[in-house]
Design goal:
8 helices, 0% strand
Length: 183
């Protein structure tokens, strides 16, 4: 299971930072004990086993729809509150887009006449039962990005609305660097 999936699962259970830090701490403290290739492989196997056990437990818990819905709701509330803490007015941002919904729907219909999306695009994802191509997801994507990226590239424990900008700016700088290196 990759770190992004672990982050999502832990966000659903409402302990995002604690859960990921615990896994990473467990992995790094265990790995720091390794001195040989064979012990490193054994430790890596232990970490993989911990992740597989966590994945199995969480998948089992979240296969129970009422538990999943409770966790999803708590995670959503936590994200909206984190956004408010850094100045993101989640509900107002959504309201501003909703007031032009008829125009948005008309533009969507004009552009989307003959598009067929892969099935996985339309499956439940994060907090959206209809997937990330739903109107709810579209109207919340900016607020969600600002909120989720808030702790990136800022001092430990701080939240900043600039985290999203820093993430994207860093990505673009690295893409340019890689692009020009290949020319």
């Amino acid at each position: 299971m990759n770190l992004m999936l672990l982050s999502f699962i832990s966000l659903l259970i409402g302990n995002h930072c604690y859960f990921i830090k615990s896994l990473l701490k467990s992995k790094s403290s265990t790995l720091s004990l390794s001195t040989t290739a064979s012990s490193s492989n054994a430790i890596s196997d232990k970490v993989d086993l911990k992740v597989k056990v966590a994945e199995t437990v969480l998948n089992t818990i979240f296969s129970i729809k009422p538990l999943y819905n409770i966790a999803k709701s708590k995670a959503r509330d936590k994200m909206i509150q984190q956004g408010a803490n850094i100045g993101v007015n989640w509900n107002e941002n959504k309201r501003l887009l909703e007031k032009d919904f008829d125009k948005l729907q008309k533009n969507y219909d004009n552009l989307n006449n003959n598009l067929n999306y892969p099935e996985y695009y339309l499956k439940p994802f994060h907090a959206y039962d209809e997937g990330n191509l739903s109107w709810q997801a579209a109207m919340e994507v900016e607020s969600a990005a600002l909120t989720v990226h808030a702790p990136i590239f800022v001092p430990k424990g701080d939240l900043s609305i600039n985290g999203d900008f820093e993430l994207r700016d860093n990505f673009h700088k690295n893409m340019k660097k890689n692009f020009y290196a290949k020319i």
